[in-house]
Design a protein that fits this description.
The protein is an alpha+beta fold. It contains ten helices and 22 strands. Helix 3 packs across helix 4, helix 5 crosses helix 7 and helix 7 runs antiparallel to helix 10. The protein is globular, with a radius of gyration of 23 Å.
């Protein structure tokens, strides 16, 4: 195919003199250094090799990007030491104005709208580096898993590290041939060379940077298809004790049925594969890595519902800013409650009223004082974001009816599929779908700083006992 580029008359090419630098800030108020302005990532081609003995990761990542302004320089987020950078095959200068930032100066200025490819080579021990008070590298002599939120990418690949800039991914991981490698999407190939092997995974749907992951270790693999034909790929660490491993395998197998149940409620599953991975490494959280959530050995059915629900809420529809995190965690927690209600647990309303009764007696607690519309960087994972966040949807169900709530959620994930959204957009859509004026409801539940009054307008059957 011959690609013709037509330049509009009278619009000169950008030069170093009339171009400006892209900002090292993505503009998020919680973590200003997350992401970078001036660039829009389109595709990541990540190639890393990991040595378990010395725990060194060596990488070569190419990023296909589009300039959103005339650029004389731009920034990438990475904590590992960099050896070289090139832009469109030409060697580029770079510097480290901050341990989290790589400032790239291409040999030629880049015009707004132009597509370009930046290649970064880097090498280091990820466990030695910290950012935003976090040391996120999870590994021992046998296993490694790159799972964390809100930050994980800078420990293993350069990126525009913010949920608002989604891209597609090719991920190739080179490790000893005895190890299995698991990542996002579909496994494309595995090539053995000597005593090492390179496994290639591909994610063709847009993905935010913190959701990209790889795991390498001794894993027991199960593959197949769900009833509707969605491919699944499950992996459980063989390093777990036999009884723990057997239990983890049984619970992880429930992913297929949970995926099918959730798509009956929410609409089509947004990706081509599902599954999960259980690590033997000591981790106290699970994470909704796109298409393949990661879990600790303590996995239980409810957390599988939560992480699979995130494939719609958080992965396909991602937050535009970190302050919108309620759209991820509150919605996934509500899915847990809704699933339990349909599988022998208490009804959604019984759960809602029970949590309300137990917490409203402490109106000054952080649980009620926290602003779900803007919880603050230190509290993005506070229990209120999860549990009170789920209460909002449970109460909304009482206010507008279960049929309208499901229609609202289905419309939400359909309209914002593969994109980003805000709390304000959800509030507007809720009014559109229900035909009701809901300002008072959302103010009471999200922003009032106190337990909502126990009224039908707030979706409650009674006040605080």
């Amino acid at each position: 195919m011959l690609l013709l580029v037509v330049l509009a008359p009278g619009l000169p090419l950008a030069t170093a003199e009339d171009s400006g630098p892209g900002s090292p800030s993505g503009g998020d108020g919680y973590w200003p250094l997350d992401g970078n302005s001036g660039t829009d990532a389109r595709h990541y081609d990540i190639r890393v090799a990991y040595d378990f003995a010395d725990r060194i990761l060596a990488g070569r990542t190419k990023i296909r990007m589009r300039a959103t302004k005339d650029l004389s320089s731009f920034s990438l987020d990475l904590v590992l030491p960099v050896s070289s950078v090139s832009v469109d095959g030409r060697r580029a200068r770079f510097r480290r104005p901050h341990p989290h930032e790589v400032r790239v100066v291409p040999s030629r200025a880049i015009a707004a709208g132009d597509l370009f490819t930046v290649e970064v080579r880097y090498r280091g021990r990820p466990e030695r580096f910290a950012y935003a008070g976090q040391r996120n590298w999870l590994a021992d002599r046998h296993e490694v898993v790159t799972m964390n939120e809100p930050h994980m990418a800078p420990w293993w690949y350069p990126s525009n590290d913010h949920p608002s800039d989604k891209a597609t991914f090719d991920i190739r991981v080179n490790v000893p041939r005895a190890k299995e490698v698991v990542s996002n999407g579909v496994r494309v190939s595995r090539r053995v060379s000597g005593n090492r092997a390179t496994t290639h995974w591909r994610m063709t749907d847009p993905m935010t940077t913190y959701l990209a992951f790889f795991a390498a270790g001794d894993f027991r693999i199960e593959t197949g298809r769900t009833r509707s034909g969605i491919r699944y790929y499950n992996a459980v660490s063989d390093r777990l004790p036999a009884s723990v491993r057997s239990r983890a395998v049984r619970i992880l197998r429930r992913t297929s049925g949970i995926t099918e149940w959730l798509q009956r409620q929410l609409g089509d599953y947004p990706f081509s594969t599902t599954g999960g991975l259980v690590t033997s490494l000591p981790v106290g959280f699970a994470l909704e890595n796109q298409t393949r959530p990661t879990y600790g050995s303590w996995i239980y059915p409810g957390v599988v519902v939560h992480e699979v629900a995130h494939q719609w809420f958080g992965d396909s529809v991602s937050v535009r800013r970190w302050r919108d995190i309620w759209l991820n965690e509150g919605f996934a927690t509500y899915a847990e409650v809704f699933y339990a209600a349909g599988h022998g647990g208490p009804s959604v309303n019984t759960w809602l009223q029970g949590v309300y009764d137990a917490t409203c007696r402490h109106p000054g607690s952080v649980f009620w004082r926290l602003d779900l519309d803007d919880p603050g960087a230190s509290r993005v994972f506070h229990s209120a974001v999860y549990d009170r966040g789920a209460m909002v949807l449970a109460a909304l169900r009482n206010r507008i009816g279960g049929t309208d709530l499901l229609r609202l959620l289905r419309t939400w994930v359909r309209d914002h599929r593969d994109g980003n959204a805000t709390v304000a957009q959800f509030e507007t859509l809720a009014e559109t779908v229900s035909g009701e004026q809901l300002d008072g409801f959302f103010d009471a539940w999200l922003r009032s700083g106190a337990p909502p009054a126990g009224t039908s307008a707030n979706g409650l059957g009674r006040g605080c006992p």
